[in-house]
Write a structure and sequence with these properties.
Strand content of chain B: 15-25%
Number of helices of chain A: 19
CATH topology of the largest domain in chain A: Uridine Diphospho-n-acetylenolpyruvylglucosamine Reductase, domain 3
CATH topology of one domain in chain B: Aldehyde Oxidoreductase, domain 4
Largest sheet of chain B: 8 strands, mixed
Enzyme class (chain A): oxidoreductase
CATH class of the largest domain in chain A: Alpha Beta
Radius of gyration of chain B: 27 Å
Keywords (chain A): FAD, Flavoprotein, Iron, Metal-binding, Oxidoreductase
Radius of gyration of chain A: 23 Å
CATH class of one domain in chain B: Alpha Beta
CATH architecture of the largest domain in chain A: 2-Layer Sandwich
Number of domains of chain A: 3
Protein name (chain A): Xanthine dehydrogenase small subunit
EC number (chain A): 1.17.1.4
Largest interface: A-B, 92 and 91 residues
Shape of chain A: globular
Distance between the termini of chain B: 68 Å
Largest sheet of chain A: 5 strands, mixed
Organism (chain A): Shinella sedimenti
Helix content of chain A: 25-40%
Oligomer: heterodimer
CATH architecture of one domain in chain B: 2-Layer Sandwich
Structural class of chain B: alpha+beta
């Protein structure tokens, strides 16, 4: 174990102020702290589960490369312990000190973007984050940035009008956060002392490891600790289930888990890489993953949630596992200094049971990029298009032989079984067969051998079974005819 | 609003009626400085309450062990039904069937059984989970689909409407179709959940800050449950973070519990529900099973309709009776039924008691009407729009026979023909119908559909006594005005509109009029802000108050200047008295010195309306508001997923008090109605547990669910034909059923798989699953 110095203070910047805290509970949420302890009431609680966006704040954090990014996150499921070395920006910090509204705010006022106003601070923060990155966004960019913000009054149209107009109220050059970026980088760097942060005693404590080795050693020694990366899942254990999650280890700040590299036709993604961070590389390397990632949670969730966490928690309805299984991804698991690599599909053993030993953690996932001749697609079916949990998700990777027959096909689904699962019987019915509609229809009958889905609030078993079959047909049509669309889409293909 | 130098030469005041002023709180909304109940600075020592909810749908309580709850960290007190000082009942219907806390039995999963008070909210919530309650479970009715409407218990006497001889007209009609449809409910999903903060006063007094649409009702319920006179209880609300009907009666429980605990402990107590608790424990829009039997001719003209609207009332009456009534009041939508028989069945179930929701049953009635149109269109092979137009009520001005509603009120202001005609043209309905047919012929997987649906919505509370309002206006000596009325602000811009009315009356700039919190201490015995009536009623009451003061000022000016009254004219920010002009502020100051009363209470009651429920007859509505929407969708025939390509809306707000506010109501109402009929699905499991109890599982529309093209306009020619406030029309609820155009566009796309020869009978909410299953059903029927 690396002998890290231990600091028992949490240090971050809140709006303009340096904050040092010495008494923070492991499950203390940022939202409650802002509202109850700091009396900053502008940030609202709408759902306490990261789905409505009323609590959106910006978190500025230093990237491994040393730049400062501001991202909208849900304060309701963000734990205080994960804020060390960050800049927290709330709606109270957006207008100028003299009360002059920020361009984002003025546009919302002038275009009637608020009615009851309760969701509005969250919208302001999401639009602020978008505008910093894209001052003149397309409607698709705006809608994507607002997937995590619910409004029940306006019908969104006036908010879109406001979002399109923000830049006409002022340029990003005059924005205080951006103007002060260099100074804030220095301020945040000064907070990074390389120490492990540890607070509380016994089980009732949390730890922010100093580095990856520190984390590995810590978890090996204390395998029952709750590992929290994005807290988009664990956050709800606290706010909704009121579970005791102590002791907690926060790993979102570990730079060593944030690497994303492309080498020898494989994309390797560290377990701490968020969906937002992975988006650019993954969608460039494997284009079909772009639209999938853009439909996971809302922007706030994608800014916190990690692909590693999506795998590690073993959910049968996680969106990335079926896609990655179809891509033949592998996983590096680590315990202490020991590492092993397994196929992702072997990781999921049964509902709630994964091939992960006590003290072991997911360190990285390795995703082979499909070869030029391979066809890969992933389809997510939900009740609502965006920010919804999967009813059925199918992923397909196909290679055809020179004679047009199926050389190999790999099919995996989510939402159809207790784990993300391959459709072996369907695959078998296709391999070696000509890739035509008759073969596909014959193979569609085989789904019943692979899956016996359940009925729940997201879909009935009958619908899941039917859609699962039809997604194979969609894949066939999309790989064979380019003329007519084989699915509805909100946006023109890029 | 900090400009206080009036322009004394202005030709027009800033922010009078018909001006498109932005929401008075917009600058506070965006800055996070608008104060909601949970944002109010808490008095020192404020305690926090949490609810213990039942874990079974129906059962007798054998025993309750709260020792672990009481022993939990931070817990100060625990309340059960035995601790309710007054009557343990908050039934708004007088049925005495709505306990504050369950006594002896529980009637739905999630019913509040006890209330914990602790030092922090977190402690209260955690402690609430430690109760040990032993239930003797009993059989539970959850869904109404299989309940016999004729024999099952009802929560309130049902209503029957009849005109003509439906039974014989059905027998003799050339064509006849019977059918049944399922129509889901809807959670309000106001972004601010239920919340109350109670501050104890001296003697029996208590002040409750409550997110309520009905402060007077909340006041009476709190007093009733506490066993004190109403004068001891004051309810105040500056604004709500959304209401939509969900805070008409549903706010009372939190208010009563917070108040009882506050008085008992002599500490301020706040009760704010968690989102999941809010969705599980408070009522929603009623879901319906609608049976219809329709007679019509080959042209598609309706001869007779027989309906049963069965609705899931939940365990108690709440507002189910009047909600069912309003469903019947709108079962005709904009169509004349020569013979009609329609009845409700208010079925008691072991689910949360359903309640008011924007439209209050009216939209459900219209869904029934539009299903009838669809059936006839597919049976006759005509475009549904042609069937609609064929069956409209007579247009305003036409003295025909086709103008009587099922409740015997004459429709005298029907402008739906003109609205539909204008929309048909601006949306290019005919051209796009053809383009869609061409598209569908060349597209195997993606099919398009289009529909243009009308709305006629009756304006007035059908409970006649509710059609009254009060206001209180003070003019201060500096000429600034303090305005208060009985309506509540939930985002709809009511306070702004009423302030515009007052500014207009005095001819002063809007920023001279101070909007203040609604409180039962200033204006008593008010009606809930509901039934779209807020501006109609309170605007009139405030105008009355302002006119009283204005008349006194005129009297004073005429007398002091020795001119006739008609030579005192209020001009922008000034008053012309004879040949001279004086600033409004100066006149006010002089009037004060002369001891003129500068404060007035205003009052208004809607004229003409009456309604006899036992006979099913009356002039139930003062007037009607109209609108129409045309929507086009794309549907994926493999999954049932869809996208709304375009919606065009033309809506009637009369002479709008504020067009931008009203357009906001139309846009928002449409999206909310679309959500109800598409992705918002309430799903109970076999044990009666609502499993869609949070935004993770209950899906209201997102920005990316909006129509890709969304054109919304108000008519620029209509005006209320009754003397409403400045001839405007109510606009809160009428736009919601415009969302029906999406349901019917989906139905149209589905119908394409069977060459539009079979009625898709697409039920709601039309989730992708329901759409795909309808596609499959039609394909199977077509194959025979």
């Amino acid at each position: 174990m690396t002998a890290a110095t231990i600091r028992s203070e949490l240090r971050f910047v809140l709006n303009g102020q340096d904050v040092t805290l010495r008494d923070v509970a492991p499950d203390q949420t940022l939202l409650d702290w802002l509202r109850v302890s700091r009396l900053l009431k502008g940030t609202k609680e709408g759902c306490a589960e990261g789905d409505c966006g009323a609590c959106t704040v910006l978190i500025g954090r230093l990237t491994p490369a040393g730049s400062l990014v501001y991202e909208g996150v849900n304060a309701c499921i963000r734990f205080m312990g994960s804020l060390d070395g960050c800049h927290v920006v709330t709606v109270e910090h957006v207008a100028a000190r003299d009360g002059t509204l920020h361009p984002v705010q003025q546009a919302m006022v002038d275009y009637h973007g608020s009615q009851c106003g309760f969701c509005t601070p969250g919208f302001v923060m999401s639009l602020y984050a978008l505008w910093m990155e894209a001052p003149n966004p397309s409607d698709q960019q705006i809608e994507t940035a607002l997937q995590g913000n619910l409004c029940r009054c306006t019908g969104y149209e006036p908010i879109l009008r406001a979002a399109r107009a923000i830049s006409s109220y002022g340029g990003t050059d005059k924005d205080p956060l951006l103007a002060e970026r260099a100074a804030m980088i220095e301020r945040l760097k000064a907070l990074k002392d390389g120490a492990r942060v540890e607070m509380g005693t016994g089980r009732n404590r949390f730890v922010v490891p100093a580095n990856l080795d520190d984390f590995a050693a810590l978890l090996a020694a204390e395998p029952t600790a709750t590992v929290v990366a994005g807290s988009t899942d664990v956050g709800l254990w606290v706010t909704k289930q009121m579970r005791d999650i102590t002791p907690v280890v926060f790993i979102a700040g570990l730079d060593e888990l944030k690497s994303i590299a492309v080498q020898d036709g494989t994309v390797s993604i560290g377990a701490g890489v968020t969906y937002s961070e992975a988006f650019e590389t993954l969608s460039a390397q494997i284009p079909a993953l772009g639209p999938l990632i853009a439909r996971i949670g809302g922007q706030q969730v994608r800014n916190m949630g990690t692909i590693g966490g999506n795998i590690a928690n073993g959910s049968p309805i996680g969106d990335t596992p079926p896609a990655l299984i179809a891509l033949a991804a592998t996983l590096t698991l680590r315990k202490g200094a020991e590492r092993r690599t397994i196929r992702l599909e072997d990781y999921f053993i049964a509902y709630g049971k994964q091939d992960r030993q006590p003290g072991e953690f997911v360190e990285a996932v390795h995703v082979p990029v499909p070869k030029a001749a391979e066809r890969f697609a992933v389809y997510k079916v939900t009740k609502r298009r965006d920010e919804d949990i999967t009813a059925t998700l199918g992923a397909f990777r196909l290679s055809l032989a020179a004679d047009g027959s199926v050389e190999d096909i790999c099919i995996a689904y989510g939402g159809m079984a207790a784990t993300p699962k391959r459709a072996f019987a369907v695959e078998k019915a296709l391999i070696g067969q000509p890739w035509n509609e008759a073969t596909v229809e014959a193979a569609m009958a085989k789904y019943a051998e692979d899956y016996q889905p359940l009925t729940d609030m997201r879909a009935t078993a009958e619908y899941r079974a039917l859609v699962a079959r039809n997604l194979l047909m969609r894949f066939f049509l999309e790989t064979t005819s380019a003329a007519a669309p084989a699915q509805v889409s909100r946006y023109e293909a890029a | 609003m900090n400009k206080h130098t009036p322009d004394l030469k202005a030709e027009k005041i800033d922010g009078g009626v018909h001006a498109s002023v932005r929401h008075d709180s917009a600058h506070k909304h965006v800055a996070g400085s608008a104060v909601y109940i949970d944002d109010i600075t808490e008095p020192a020592g404020t305690l926090h309450a949490g609810l213990g909810l039942s874990t079974v749908a129906h059962g007798a309580i054998r025993s309750i062990d709260l020792s672990a709850v009481r022993a939990a960290p931070g817990v100060v007190d625990v309340l059960t039904h035995a601790d309710i000082p007054g009557e343990n009942d908050i039934s708004p219907s007088g049925m005495h069937d709505d306990p504050v806390l369950a006594a002896g039995k529980v009637q739905f999963h999630g019913q509040p059984v006890f209330c914990v008070i602790a030092k922090t909210r977190e402690q209260a919530r955690r402690a609430a989970r430690l109760a040990k309650i032993d239930y003797e479970e009993m059989p539970a009715d959850i869904d109404i689909w299989d309940l016999d409407a004729a024999t099952r218990p009802q929560v309130f006497p049902p209503l029957t409407l009849k005109r003509g001889e439906a039974a014989s007209a059905l027998e003799s009609a050339p064509r006849r179709i019977k059918g049944r449809m399922r129509l889901g409910g809807q959670d309000h999903f106001y972004l601010e959940g239920q919340v109350s903060l109670a501050v104890p006063g001296e003697d029996d007094e208590v002040l409750v800050y409550c997110s309520t649409q009905g402060p007077s009702e909340t006041q009476h319920m709190v007093a009733h449950a506490m066993g004190v006179p109403s004068h001891a209880v004051t309810i105040e609300v500056r604004r709500m973070g959304g209401g939509f009907g969900g805070k008409e009666t549903q706010a009372n429980q939190c208010a009563a519990l917070a108040a009882i605990a506050a008085k008992r402990l002599n500490r301020a107590v706040k009760l704010r529900l968690d989102r999941d608790e809010d969705m599980v424990a408070t009522g929603k829009r009623h879901d319906f099973a609608i049976d219809y039997d329709i007679g019509f001719d080959d042209e598609g003209r309706i001869h007779a309709v027989d309906y049963t609207f069965a609705l899931r009332a939940g365990f108690s009456a709440d507002l189910s009776g009047p909600v069912g009534d309003r469903a019947l009041f709108h079962c005709d939508n904009a169509y004349f039924f020569p013979h009609v028989h329609a009845k409700t069945a208010l079925l008691r179930t072991n689910t949360v008691s359903n309640t008011a929701f924007r439209g209050f049953g009216g939209p459900q009635g219209m869904v029934g009407a539009e299903r009838v149109i669809d059936e006839i269109a597919f049976a006759t092979g005509k475009d549904p729009l042609d069937i609609r137009k064929l069956n409209f009520y007579d247009a305003m001005g036409v003295e025909g026979e086709r103008n009587l509603t099922p409740y015997h009120q004459k429709v005298g202001d029907c402008i739906i023909q003109r609205i539909v005609a204008e929309l048909e043209e601006s949306a290019d309905y005919a051209g796009r119908r053809k383009a869609i047919a061409d598209f569908n012929a060349g597209s195997r997987i993606v099919k398009r559909g289009i529909a243009l649906t009308p709305v006629k919505f009756g304006i007035s509370f059908t409970k006649t006594e509710s059609n009254q309002a009060g206001a209180l206006v003070h003019v201060y000596t500096d000429g600034s005005v303090h305005m208060n009325h009985g309506g509540t602000e939930m985002g709809q811009g009511l306070h702004l509109k009423v302030a515009q009315v007052v500014a207009e009356e005095f001819q002063i700039d809007l920023d001279r009029v101070k909007i203040t919190a609604t409180t039962t201490a200033k204006v008593p015995n008010t009606s809930p802000t509901a039934a779209s009536s807020g501006a109609d009623l309170n605007g009139m009451a405030a105008q009355d108050a302002a006119r009283q003061i204005k008349n006194r000022l005129i009297d004073f000016a005429a007398e002091s200047h020795q001119v006739p009254r008609d030579q005192v004219v209020f001009l922008p920010n000034r008053v012309r008295i004879g040949n001279s002009e004086m600033a409004f502020n100066d006149l006010v100051r002089k009037a004060y010195v002369a001891r003129v009363q500068l404060s007035a209470a205003g009052f208004y009651k809607t004229p003409k309306i009456h309604w006899d429920r036992s006979k099913g007859r009356g002039h139930a509505f003062y007037y009607y508001a109209y609108g129409a929407a045309c929507s086009e969708v794309s549907v994926d025939m493999l999954t049932g997923e869809y996208v709304v390509e375009r919606t065009d809306i033309l809506h009637d707000a009369g002479r709008s008090l504020n067009r931008t506010i009203d357009i906001g109501q139309v846009e928002g109402g449409f999206i909310q109605g679309m959500g109800w009929l598409t992705t918002e699905e309430l799903w109970w499991d076999g044990k009666g547990r609502l499993r869609t109890h949070a935004p993770s599982t209950y899906k209201i529309p997102l920005a990316s669910d909006r129509p890709k093209i969304f054109n919304v306009a108000l008519t620029d020619w209509s005006e209320a034909y009754e003397p409403t406030i400045h001839r405007s029309k109510a606009v809160g609820e009428p736009p919601l059923p415009l969302g029906l155009s999406v349901l019917h566009a989906l139905s149209d796309a589905v119908a394409s798989v069977a060459d539009h020869s079979i009625c898709p009978r697409l039920d709601a909410p039309a989730t992708p699953e329901r759409v795909l299953m309808a596609i499959e059903r039609l394909r199977a029927e077509k194959r025979g």
